[in-house]
Amino acid sequence: MSPQKTTKRAKSAKPAKRVTTRPVRKDRTRVLVLVGTRKGAFIFESDRARKKWAMTGPHMQGWGVNHITLDKRGGAPGVIFAAFNHEVYGANIHRSSDLGKTWQMADGPRFPTDANAGKKVARIWRVEPGHASRPDEVWAGVDPASLFKSEDGGQTWSPVDSLNEHATREKWVPGAGGLILHSIIPHPSDPKRMHVAISAAGVFRTEDGGATWSPKNHGTKACFLPEGQQWPEVGQCCHHLVMSPTNPEVFFQQNHCGVYRTENGGDEWTDIGEGLPAKFGFPMAIHSHEEQTIYIVPEVSDEYRYVPGGAMAVYRSRNGGRKWERLSRGLPNKDAYLHVFREGMATDTCDSCGVYVGTGTGQVFFSRNAGDSWEMLADFLPPIYSVATAVDG
What we know:
Elements: E1 19-20, E2 30-37, E3 40-46, E4 53-59, E5 64-71, E6 79-86, E7 90-96, E8 104-105, E9 123-129, E10 138-143, E11 146-150, E12 158-159, H1 161-164, E13 180-186, E14 194-199, E15 202-206, E16 214-215, E17 238-243, E18 251-255, E19 258-262, E20 270-271, E21 281-286, E22 294-298, E23 314-317, E24 325-327, E25 345-347, E26 355-358, E27 364-367, E28 375-378, E29 384-392
Parallel strand pairs: 1-4
Antiparallel strand pairs: 2-3, 2-29, 3-4, 5-6, 6-7, 7-8, 9-10, 10-11, 11-12, 13-14, 14-15, 15-16, 17-18, 18-19, 19-20, 21-22, 22-23, 23-24, 25-26, 26-27, 27-28
């Protein structure tokens, strides 16, 4: 037999030699990138230039971090909330008030044992700070698809039965990752209004503080259902939901069956996937200053889940999905069959918008110019589940 041919490793952005464990800020602005992985959390810190970075971690090593975020409603340095999941110790929410130096574990979320015999939280997928006018309000989304609320800063939790026991519940079906509530988006000015997204049930909205919920899926397709049944009231597989930072009526969603936009809070959705190499994917992020600029990472659908052609690329639209452009300068473009998880992409609020992408193989790529070119912030981290940012100063 002739020897098997080998291929050279794909060229890509070089690991950032700029990363250190010492402070690197040269101005008063602090840029934080919080990375949740299969084996703990990592925190990167820089200044406005974002040329040199300091890293700490792994925090809570050994715990899977499905989602991590920084709540700044009480001022700097803020409170980190993280959805920790462990094969032995189960699912819990932890919080840190000192950027990861110490952590406190919450009591829950969990289902009341008397009313839910045998029902338990299998995994926590999302932790979301509530409205700015309610600084102690925090929300959590879990598997099996349920919403929990805390009114004491995440220390104790209660299930939101108005959604968890919704009249359409029997029509909710699990996706490949389970039946999960993964997106929670409070309205920026109306504390009684909020959107959530469930796989596979779709998008729901409340306008009365969670007392009642309405499905908001008109115009989104459930392509995996039989012909004639693909436009149901509920049952769509929304993978990720984001809201414009400047217009709370504008939302975008990455769906199992396409990419969609709404300009009326979810009442009507429009398919904006034309021109993409694939309509399937998980992560989605929106420009911090431009309501019509969005970012996605298309992937080969269903069980394969890697970028098309083994070439890593982020796709950007500057006009709400009417036209897409491929962004790949500095990203690996050969033999790079990468996957990006649901929470694996984020933007920052710097004047020149930063974009950050974490992969299932442990790389963090970032752009300091809204995606025009890319650099590698970290390589060889554990598989990355979540990327979030925060900017002070």
